[in-house]
Amino acid sequence: MPTHVFDEGxxxxxxxxxxxxxxxxxxQGLDGTTTLxxxxxxxxxxxxxxxxxxxxxxxFNHIIxxxxxxxxxxxxxxxxxxxxxxxxxxxxxxxHFRFVGxxxxxxYIAVSVCPTKFREPDHICTVNARRQRDWLETYLxxxxxxxxxxxxxxxxxVPETVNLLIGVINGLTRQRGLHxxxxxxMRDVTVEFCRRSLVxx
Amino acid sequence: MPTHVFDEGxxxxxxxxxxxxxxxxxxQGLDGTTTLxxxxxxxxxxxxxxxxxxxxxxxFNHIIxxxxxxxxxxxxxxxxxxxxxxxxxxxxxxxHFRFVGxxxxxxYIAVSVCPTKFREPDHICTVNARRQRDWLETYLxxxxxxxxxxxxxxxxxVPETVNLLIGVINGLTRQRGLHxxxxxxMRDVTVEFCRRSLVxx
Amino acid sequence: MPTHVFDEGxxxxxxxxxxxxxxxxxxQGLDGTTTLxxxxxxxxxxxxxxxxxxxxxxxFNHIIxxxxxxxxxxxxxxxxxxxxxxxxxxxxxxxHFRFVGxxxxxxYIAVSVCPTKFREPDHICTVNARRQRDWLETYLxxxxxxxxxxxxxxxxxVPETVNLLIGVINGLTRQRGLHxxxxxxMRDVTVEFCRRSLVxx
Amino acid sequence: MPTHVFDEGxxxxxxxxxxxxxxxxxxQGLDGTTTLxxxxxxxxxxxxxxxxxxxxxxxFNHIIxxxxxxxxxxxxxxxxxxxxxxxxxxxxxxxHFRFVGxxxxxxYIAVSVCPTKFREPDHICTVNARRQRDWLETYLxxxxxxxxxxxxxxxxxVPETVNLLIGVINGLTRQRGLHxxxxxxMRDVTVEFCRRSLVxx
DNA sequence: CATGAATGAGCGTTCATTCAT
DNA sequence: AATGAATGAACGCTCATTCAT
Lengths: 201, 201, 201, 201
What we know:
4 copies of one chain form a homotetramer. In chain A, 71% of the residues lie in helices and 0% in strands. Chain A has a domain at 60-198: Tetracycline Repressor, domain 2, CATH 1.10.357. Chain A contains 9 helices and no strands. The first copy, chain A, binds a DNA duplex (21 and 21 nucleotides) through residues 11, 13, 34-36, 44-52, 55-56.
């Protein structure tokens, strides 16, 4: 069920290229991955990459674009479920745990190789990262402000806590692939950790 | 005052090479940084790099080695200050906030370019990352176990919480350079966030 | 009315290919023109070129062949009009002025890209260029010898003057496309220039 | 004495590259010549080309630049010798015969591969070709106008005759390498041909 | 007749590295 | 300690060409 959501109506060999590239970019970075390696692992010849994409950079951008589209569509599906403010935060954490589980390579690329492009202000990486940060800031700020006003949450400095929560999400996101066997356990412990910190008792 | 701690008794041009390489590796990664660029930014010629180091990889390893030495010596200085368990955790968080402030490039390299080497089990990156994780795990597990036993902390699942705290540290560490102006504020909020979650009231 | 003389009984798309190729070869040379570009400008896909021709070289040869056929058939039409010797030379100059006006691209290819093939003695370019030179030499030598014998022309060294006249034709031929607006004027001035040099007064 | 005038103070291997490239560009054009071939014929490895030049195009431009510098410095040496107007024209023809004899490859490149760059208005080829044409037009127009005014020349249409003379120079220039054994003969015959046409008797 | 998909061969270029000085 | 000159290896990419349909 994972990666397949991206692949509807795409040729098999093109899929292979995208999947191989995604894995290799995650493992070795953009500069560390050669087009020859991608082609070999995809079971095609190098020029086919250039038939389907303008170049290595374009292939990379395609992966970034597709990944962030899936990410944001997941985020947007969240918004519609109102509840207590903590349940909204829990849903956000939950979504990230699921997303990183489904798309570990895509997530790792976004977190680890995208930043090398932040120097270019119009790069697809920069644009999407900014959009992500804005989205999370808006969402979390709203949760915290409402939660504090309704006495659901402790009185805490909002912007710093938003920043902290984004850091938590980022940090847990980066710990993929390597270990993190007991995903279910981590999810629950993280949620409870935040609940104790935020929710008034 | 920062970077200079590494440079005692080192020739000026060698220092320039190391500093230029550190900055460039952090900005563009290992593969993305050419020896020519390093030489230019250091104000020397390429062969001088090879006079002082065996090659680019060796220069990189030197930087990693020096950085982790400073990091671990900071960690070891921590151990000697016993107190309440939460104070120990606070000291750990505090140290990381300070370290990332003093050595942003070194930290960023360790977090973002080291992982591309984890495939090689004996690489200096892999070894140091493992050692770091072990150190943090041991330290935090000890804190949590003692804190729980002495009723200072809530009863929480230890390994997952250790993992979570490491994630928090990692996440906040990655958010360097870009923004995070109010470092002091972040430090306090983070400490309080963890305190509310951990310490029984 | 021009290029159409070549196209009788040829499919429209094949015509497009030939015309696009002719223009591009003249503009960018043989190596500088890609089959993809030809296909695009002809409004077809690349494989269609290979349906109609064995390959790019074959398409090029076809153009050379067709161009030289038209050129030689024009030359042969000349021969039949006897008159004074200078009138024969004038007719030859006249024909070249008209030909280069009708087929500027074909002429330019013959003059500028054919020479890169002269290394291959059996190439269609080499063969036709030799045949052209032979034809012009024979024709002009005959004119000059007869004209001198009949006291129509000054006593001049024949082979060198033949060579010179071929050079004049070549030089004026090359000056197409770029400028040379007043073609009619150039024709007359050239003819009179040669007349004053050759014809006894 | 030939090509050596360009080479003062240049490294031997760099000279080899320039000479090999000059010959190959003349024989096969810019696109038809590979950097590998240049390197092989120069007895060096490919990267050395990139050590001395920014790339193939830059090497080509260097050759064009050097050639035209030599050409224009030759032209400028001409100007200072006033005499009858026809002697000035004779000197011009003479210079071109000598130049094409000394630098046949450079001349051929200027005449045959430069035009593929004329599309780019700021290209070194375009700029130099325009400058050359301007120079020749100015020079020849001056000769003809003065010659006509002083009754040295017949009354002839000046701009067209200028154009014709440039065509003659171009045409004879293009006939390099191929044959043209009796250069001395050609020079004299050409001069006399023009004299009879221009000079009043 | 016509095309989308795919490839073998090779090209211009870069880069880490070495050598002679 | 330091450098200009030079190279082996490989990389991203293009192109003429073919194949299946």
